[in-house]
Amino acid sequence: MLYKFILEKLGNNQKNSAVDVGINLLQYVFEETKIQIWGPRCELLNRLEKEYGITKQDKKKPDSIF
Question: Residue 57 CA to chain centroid, in angstroms?
Answer without folding.
Answer: 27
